[in-house]
Write a structure and sequence with these properties.
Blueprint (H helix, E strand, L loop, with lengths): L12 E12 L1 H5 L8 H19 L18 E4 L3 E7 L5 H26 L9 E14 L4 E3 L1 H9 L7 E4 L5 H4 L2 H4 L2 E8 L3 E8 H6 L2 H4 L6
Parallel strand pairs: 4-6
Antiparallel strand pairs: 1-3, 1-4, 2-3, 4-5, 6-8, 7-8
Helix pairs in contact: 2-3
Length: 225
């Protein structure tokens, strides 16, 4: 009934990179007058834009679209109701490649605010202003014929994208940004300790600028090492 295929098939284990994109304020957007006149239009344009952004970000510079990719595309994309889950297979990825993917996802979040939001607000009233992203690494396990996956890293990524007013956050586990991320990007992040509901304490990297802009109550959620 869930269209997962044969759920008795042996589960396949994959070393993965999970990214959960979330539309901040989407629930309120759906509560506007006559949402059926704006929500389908918004989602159609948003999903097309998001997948096109991923293709563009992952296309090597100097090449025409879809000609040459500098990194693997996600092996799973799943709509979650107010966002999208993406999974990458990291089995044969270097730490540098993984960090570069993460930086590309940060660029997509910024591009939403700087480009897509400015365009879509002329089409539908009061659309979500912010696209957030939470990221974590770990093992995921296939369900049925591989149309769905479960794993703790998916849960962690989902929790991270909901932290206060932050728009971008990733778990420290599995990311050696001191070694694998370019300095021009690395200096934008600060490491903090935070307690995640249902998970416990987690070391995370967040944007310095966003942390400094949080109200005092928001900053209290994060502890220095």
């Amino acid at each position: 009934m869930l269209r997962l295929g044969d759920i008795c098939l042996p589960s396949k284990e994959v070393e993965a990179f999970a990214a959960v994109f979330d539309l901040s304020g989407f629930t309120n957007f759906c509560s506007k007058v006559d949402p059926h006149l704006s929500v389908p239009e918004y989602l159609s344009r948003f999903l097309y834009w998001l997948f096109d952004e991923i293709r563009t970000e992952f296309t090597a510079k100097g090449y025409h679209k879809s000609k040459a990719l500098w990194a693997e595309l996600p092996f799973l994309a799943k709509f979650l109701g107010d966002g999208v889950l993406f999974l990458w297979d990291t089995s044969n990825m270097t730490g540098t490649r993984i960090c570069n993917i993460m930086v590309s996802l940060l660029c997509i979040c910024r591009e939403y605010r700087n480009t897509f939001y400015r365009e879509i607000k002329m089409v539908v009233g009061s659309p979500p202003k912010v696209l957030r992203c939470g990221i974590a690494r770990g093992r995921v396990f296939s369900v049925g014929n591989g149309q769905d996956y479960v794993g703790s890293c998916i849960n962690i990524a989902s929790r991270l994208q909901k932290l206060t007013d932050l728009t971008f956050c990733f778990s420290q586990r599995g990311f050696d940004i001191e070694q694998d991320m370019e300095e021009v990007n690395r200096h934008n992040f600060v490491e903090k300790l935070v307690t995640l509901r249902g998970i416990g304490e987690e070391l995370v990297w967040i944007l310095k600028k966003e942390f400094n802009s949080l109200p005092e109550k928001g900053r209290e959620l994060f502890r220095s090492l």
